[in-house]
Amino acid sequence: MLRSWRVKLKLLLATVTLVVLLSWLYLFMGSLEYGRFLLLPPCLGEQPSRDVERDALASRVRRVEEENQQLRRQLGQVQAEGGDGNPQWGASAEDGDLPGDERSNRTACPKQRTVHKCELLHVAIVCAGHNASRDVVTLVKSILFHRKNPLHFHFITDSVAHQILQTLFQSWMVPSVHVSFYNADDLKASTGFPFAWSQPCCGSLQPEVSWIPSKHYSGIYGLMKLTLTKALPSNLSKVIVLDTDITFATDIAELWAVFGKFSDKQVIGLVENQSDWYLGNLWKNHKPWPALGRGFNTGVILLLLDRLRRLGWEQMWRLTAERELMSMLSTSLADQDIFNAVIKQNPALVYQLPCFWNVQLSDHTRSEQCYTEVSDLKVIHWNSPKKLRVKNKHVEFFRNLYLTFLEYDGNLLRRELFGCASLPSPPSNQLQQALEELDEDDPCYDFRRQHLTQHRIHLFFLQYEFLALPNPTDVTLVAQLSMDRLQMLEAICKHWAGPISLALYMSDAEAQQFLRYAQASEVLSARRNVAYHIVYKEGQFYPINLLRNVALANTQTPYVFLTDIDFLPMYGLYDYLRNSIQQLELPQRKAALIVPAFETLHYRLSFPKSKAELLSMLDMGSLYTFRYHVWPKGHAPTDYAKWRTATVPYRVAWQPDFEPYVVVRRDCPKYDQRFVGFGWNKVSHIMELDAQEYELLVLPNAFMIHMPHAPSFDISKFRLSAGYRGCLQTLREEFHQDLSRRYGAAALKYLTAERSL
């Protein structure tokens, strides 16, 4: 037995010596530039900052020292027992007996798990209103730019954001991106494009949080993240939750991999709040909601939904909110206050993310401690109400990063994820099949390719007040434009007081220039009944009839005035048209009201205030009938001679190449989108109205005046290129054939009239 005791004592002394040497080695190597590579295993998907590594190293040294002390105590026990005892040779406590932080810091890369390249990642975003719908696009671009995995976006929206984002994603057609919508305003949830889930939501979301008073500028939607366990599908086990004012600077899969680090009890991943808000020392009598230390910011959240549901999350946060509201009366930071109050009571639920996963750029932030190099940045959070105007030492760098994605061409993000099986959506399949059927040797290939181009569309780009119940005779001015006609907007708004629907053909960068222009304009910023729909540029031709159809489809009034952006309507035309619709009993008849068109060659014009003034200017030569000198056939059927003396509407017959500007019902035929660039885009539409037996009625006291401008690029191509004109003729013939198929013998007159010319 004595011999056995001596053997054990020697073994224990050797172990103590080894531990002391290791402690000294850890301390020594921690001061070396490359010591961390010798002591810490490399991380996959995440590289901790030096502060994190230093903390991990210090924690490991403390653990070794504790083990050293425990060994010394055991050695004392062995010596006291004279070798007859049974010392416990396990030098460290079981993981289950350690606090969560100590377990996670035992190595720099605990529970590291790589994300499979084809694993589907789920992202949830609450988005309501026009501004948030515009902001979230920049967030989505930053995610798509870096991503290497299929994504499923879950949007909790109001009806406005739902319409905007559903149209955007359907027209964007990004491969391996799924989108689902959950309407916060009613009982229904709809599935976006491509279809992923079709089951209804679990009930209305607004009543879940509408009882909570909130001072936050986000209103009731700032509380919606509390309802995600109920709002999202029950078979969804985990999700990354993001605010709309987030910008990613890395692959979101790196953040998804952090789920693998959660302990069995942790259900929420959050970054510590980087301001002093929850410390309660920002001003006198500042009383924030309870929080653990500095509290946590909810701009970036990792949620283990299945565990939260098992824990009874809905009841947990509700009871906490009810208790705290008895003294706090309202929330100041919306859902963030309630999340922090729950965590204060249940600290074991939270996994603290490294702060570079949510670099918060609010005033008085400590965000500079999250990074030392550009490569350290993962996620930037513009969580100040000042947004890009926030004060920060490195704000210029962050602003430039944000602007890069703000103006980035979203078309470039339509890239395939090679190596991942993807289920293409039916629209995508049909488009691909149509493209494959095109003959690249066809002289008109470019025209046909442009017709099939899928343009991204962002509806209601600026604030728009929808009509609760439109007047049965109300009418919307419908037009399209590009950046070079932007200067016409203010003048049109001064001439037309009614609703306007505009389709703007722009690049991502130009759309931001337009936004700044509109916000700076007193005239435009004062209007809430002008709808701006961005159709993003792609292809070499101006898709004029696509633009018209987008503007037409998104009107609300029963009638539409189909015009062009370079025409100014007469003062009072809006009221005159509404009265005419009523007097002519248009709801009971199929008619197109023609507004006679005139033009001036003067950039500065004393606009006529009446028909009498216009006729006087016409006689003096300062005004002309529209295009009388270059394209008289386009408007000659209006019969300007009769109009001079007319006092009541009169009917005119269709004639070849007639292209007047008309007021029709909103459900009129769409424009034929095969016609792009210059030529036959309006002529074809009027022809179809006539084929559907619309009466053509000229209004006797209405007029509009075309303002001069430089020739468009497309009209220059038409004039200079015989090939362009030849293709236009081919498209005209094909249109005639289609018209004959749809309307039979009634359409033969159009072909006969064309041939006679």
As a percent range, the share of helical residues equals 25-40%
In the CATH hierarchy, the architecture of the domain at 457-755 is: Alpha-Beta Complex
Low-confidence stretches: 24-50, 78-111, 187-202
CATH topology call of the domain at 457-755: Spore Coat Polysaccharide Biosynthesis Protein SpsA, Chain A
**Helix/strand structural class:** alpha/beta
| Name of the CATH first level of the domain at 457-755 | Alpha Beta
Determine Rg (CA atoms, Å): 34 Å
Please state roughly what percent of the residues sit in beta strands, choosing from under 5%, 5-15%, 15-25%, 25-35%, 35-45% or over 45%. Answer: 5-15%
Mean of residue pLDDT values: 82
InterPro entries: Glyco_trans_8, Nucleotide-diphossugar_trans, Xyl/GlcA_transferase
Membrane topology: Single-pass type II membrane protein
Cofactor: Mn(2+)
Family: In the N-terminal section; belongs to the glycosyltransferase 8 family.
Keywords for this structure?
eight-stranded mixed beta sheet, Spore Coat Polysaccharide Biosynthesis Protein SpsA, Chain A, elongated, nine-stranded mixed beta sheet, alpha/beta, 26 helices, single chain, 757 residues, transferase
What do these coordinates show?
It is a single chain. It contains 26 helices and 24 strands. Helix 5 (129-146) links the parallel strand 1 (121-127) and strand 2. The strands form four sheets. The chain has a nine-stranded mixed sheet with strand order 12-15-14-13-16-22-18-23-21. It has an eight-stranded mixed sheet with strand order 4-3-2-1-5-8-7-9. It is elongated and about 105 Å long. It is an alpha/beta fold and 757 residues long. Among the domains are: 121-187 and 209-350, Spore Coat Polysaccharide Biosynthesis Protein SpsA, Chain A (Alpha-Beta Complex); 457-755, Spore Coat Polysaccharide Biosynthesis Protein SpsA, Chain A, CATH 3.90.550. Its main location: Golgi. In the N-terminal section; belongs to the glycosyltransferase 8 family. Residues 76-108 are annotated as: Disordered.
